[in-house]
Write a structure and sequence with these properties.
By secondary structure, the chain is an alpha+beta fold. The protein folds into two domains: about 110 residues, Homing Intron 3 (I-Ppo) Encoded Endonuclease, Chain A (Alpha-Beta Complex); about 55 residues, GCC-box Binding Domain (2-Layer Sandwich). The chain has four helices and twelve strands. A three-stranded antiparallel sheet has the order 5-6-7. The radius of gyration is 20 Å and the shape is elongated.
Length: about 180
C-alpha cells in the first residue's frame, strides 16, 4: 500500500474505500481538461517537471492500464481525481470507463458503477475456450452451455445459438453496462 494511504471499510457499499488527499491540495497541483481527460501540473514540481507538463504515470492493474497521480505520497487514479474535480467530492464507489480504456479519463467516458456493473463490462477471460463470455463447451454432453450471473440458461448444439441466447439475456440484464462482443 502506498505511503500515507489507508483503507477503511465503506458501510454502504461494503467495499474498501481509499482515504484520499485533501481536494484543495489536488486543485493546487493539477489542472484537468474534461474534454481530453488530460491532467497537467499547475506548479513546477522538480527540475524535470515544469508547470504545464502532463501529470501522472501509466500503471497496469489486472491487465488494464490506468493513469496514476501522486499527491503528497498518496497514489490516486486519474479517473478518481477527475470525478473529484468535476463533482467536488471523492468517489465512495467504483468508476467505470464506458469504453473500457482505463487511460481515457474524459468526463463523458466516466460513470458511477457498482462492482457487479464493472464485471458486466469486463473483458473476455484469457482462459475462455469458446470466445464468448458466459458460454462454455461441455464435451460430455456435446453441447455449449450458457450461464449468466450464476443462472444456467440452457445447452445448445451450436456456438452461434448459445451466443445469441447469452447476448440477448446479457443485454436485457446489464442495460447500459452491456458490452458487445
Amino acid at each position: 500500500m502506498p505511503i500515507g494511504s489507508t483503507l477503511v471499510e465503506d458501510k454502504v457499499m461494503s467495499c474498501p474505500v481509499k482515504k484520499f488527499p485533501p481536494l484543495d491540495r489536488v486543485r493546487e497541483l493539477f489542472r484537468y481538461e474534461p474534454n481530453t481527460g488530460e491532467f497537467t501540473w499547475r506548479v513546477k514540481q522538480s527540475i524535470r517537471i515544469e508547470k504545464g507538463d502532463r501529470a501522472g504515470v501509466t500503471v497496469t492493474r489486472d491487465t488494464c492500464q490506468y493513469l496514476k497521480l501522486t499527491v503528497d505520497y498518496v497514489n490516486v487514479y486519474g479517473h478518481q481525481v477527475a470525478w473529484a474535480l468535476m463533482t467536488g467530492e471523492w468517489p465512495t464507489f467504483e468508476i467505470d470507463h464506458r469504453d473500457s480504456n482505463g487511460l481515457n479519463n474524459r468526463w463523458r467516458n466516466l460513470r458511477r458503477a457498482t462492482r457487479s456493473q464493472q464485471l458486466y463490462n469486463s473483458r473476455l477471460r484469457s482462459d475462455n475456450t469458446t470466445g464468448v463470455k458466459g458460454v462454455s463447451y461441455n464435451a460430455h454432453r456435446n453441447r455449449y452451455e450458457v450461464m449468466l450471473g450464476g443462472r444456467h440458461l440452457g445447452r445448445f448444439k451450436t456456438l452461434a445459438d448459445a451466443k445469441f441466447v447469452r447476448e440477448r439475456a446479457a443485454r436485457r440484464a446489464h442495460g447500459e453496462f452491456y458490452r458487445e462482443q
